[in-house]
Design brief:
The protein is α+β, with helices and mostly antiparallel strands. It has one domain (6-36, 44-94). It is built from three helices and four strands; from the N terminus they run E-E-E-E-H-H-H. It has helices at residues 44-54, 57-65, 69-90; strands at residues 6-12, 15-22, 25-32, 35-38. The chain is globular, with a radius of gyration of 16 Å.
Length: 97
Amino acid sequence: MNREPCSFKVFLPGRHFCFSISDSGIRITGVCALGAGTVGKGDDAYKVDFIGRYASASQIWELRIKGYTEIADGAYKAYKNRQDERKSFSDVSYAND
């Protein structure tokens, strides 16, 4: 079954990432003021984790809707880990408080 390709961009201060997911694989391109390059050449596990670290929940949901459930599951796990890390930093109490 051929699935519809899914593409989206994530903008960060000073750079952005272009994600393209299709049946032929995952392609991530990082673009900044000094140039562009491919992220995680050949390693799909790293790319799925990278999607989870930088994509929004709605972008991960879009992957699932378009049929890329395995990628969406892995990315969502990384997304949840990222959210848990952010919560743990806000829970830090200081001795002088």
